[in-house]
Structure formats: structure tokens, C-alpha cells
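Subject: Sanity check before I submit

Could someone independently write out the C-alpha cells for this chain? I want to compare against mine line by line before I put it in a report. The sequence has 301 residues.
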Amino acid sequence: MTLQQLKYAVVTAEKGTVSEAAASLYIAQPSLTKALKELEKEMGISIFNRTNKGVFVSKEGEVFLGYARQVLEQAALITEKYTHQSGGKQEFCVSTQHYSFAVNAFVDLIQVYGSDNYDFSLRETQTYEIIDDVARLKSEIGILYLNEFNETVLRKILKSNDLQFTELFEAKPHIFISDKNPLAQKAEVTMADLQPYPYLSFEQGEHNSFYYSEEIFSTEIRSKNIRVRDRATLFNLLIGLNGYTICSGVIDEELNGENIVAIPLTENGSMHIGYITKKHAVPSRLGSIYLDALKRYAKNS
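---
Independent answer below. Compare away.
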């Protein structure tokens, strides 16, 4: 077993096909296939299940790749420390619904990591893609919420993808609005209070479903609906149109600006916000740092 073989396996898992992995590694596809088969033979396991649609990581492969990532990270650190050369770019990816604490934890990760050579990704994306990213190992960690409405369906989807959900904290329903909105002066608001105002939500693309909605009470009938893809656009519209969105109430002024406020919503309900990972997968060093940061912010939520 060599570090090169471990890198080949990790990249192949991320790309999902041997051809894409070979192209990104700048080697011939037959050479990559041979190297992966030799690694599997030496380890006595099948890291990948191969189909005509690509390769999928096996259950035993998930555990193996968790250790492989740790070995590659440690090798890179040794190279940087003792040869004063770059140990190669470290890669890490998180997929998340639109939460400021997920961004804050990502900032902490980069500050703790402290290297000049990395390639990290923070994907604020749709719920279906979060699950798919982690299932295909494109992201090590995904962040989303469960509640009474979506839990049965989403847990079934998570189980079918061999994923597990770990709760970080429970949040009561709030709204985000502009501080100039007339409702900003209220201690709490009702659904009736919100009737005249435009409702903003994050669109879920071709997999649009109430169960995938990022906002609770998604089945409510509203006369004014606006769907957006990114957080900055949503906040701009909250200010420009006096709109509102339903959320966890967790806000960060540095990231979201001083003009957005969170007001409690009187409706019964809660959001169990947490993260998803592959079952039995061993967290990478970077994954562990990120999860530690997430848990710190969760305690203050």
C-alpha cells in the first residue's frame, strides 16, 4: 500500500467514476483501474462496487477511506513541517442549508488549519443535493434539519443512503425580517400578522418537495411567494420588499448584516438542526475540526 494508491482511492470516491478520477489525477484510466484493484487485493476488501454508471463506495470502503484521508492529511503535515515544502493541497467539502453558524464553523476550520495550501468547499445548496453529496462522498458532512413534518421521509432517505443524522440543537420557529419592517417592533408574530407580506424561501430545483423545504410550515398557503437560490439575495429582498422568511432564528450580524432581525413565531413546532455523515465512517482530521467548531456554535444557539 502506498500514499499514491490511497490518494487514487480517495479521488475516485469523490469523482464517482474512474474516468473522471483518472483525468483529474492526470493518469491513464487503465493505470488507475489497475492501481485500485491492487490496493483492494492487498487490503482484502472491495473498496468500490462497480456498475455501468460508475463506481460506488462499499460499506467497508467507507471505513477504509476514512482512515485513508487521515493518513494523507498526516503525510501532508509531515512534509510541510520537515521539508518546508507544500505537502499538497488539502481538500475538504461541506454541504449545508443556509445557516450562518455553518459558515462561522468553516471560518474556524480554516483558521485552525493554518496552511497556505488548501482547497476547501462550502456548498450552501438544496436539501436533496446535501444528502446526495454526502452519500457520494463529495462532502464529508452535510447540515440540515428534521422536524415532525419531514422526519419520517428524510430518515427513510438517509437510511437508504447509509447516512446517519446527529442533532446539534433544537430551534423554535422565528422569522427573519428587515429592521424597518413594521413587524420588527413586535415581541412575537403570528401567521396572521405575516399575511400582507411577501414570503421568501429557498427553491429546491427539480427535487422540489415540501419534505425537502428548508423552511418549516412549508405547506401553508400564501398569496405572495418568492423563491431564491442564495442567502444574499434573500436578505436583500427581505430589506427591499419588506418580505419575511421562516427560520431557526440563529443569526450573525457580521455575516447577515445589522438590518436583519429575528422575531419569534407563535406557531407550535421546532427544528432539530444537525449534521449527516456516512454511517461507520471515520471523521478525517479536517472533519473533526469542523465538527468541533459546529458543536461550539450549537451550544450558543
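---
OP: Matches mine. For the report I'm noting this point. The longest strand covers residues 163-171.
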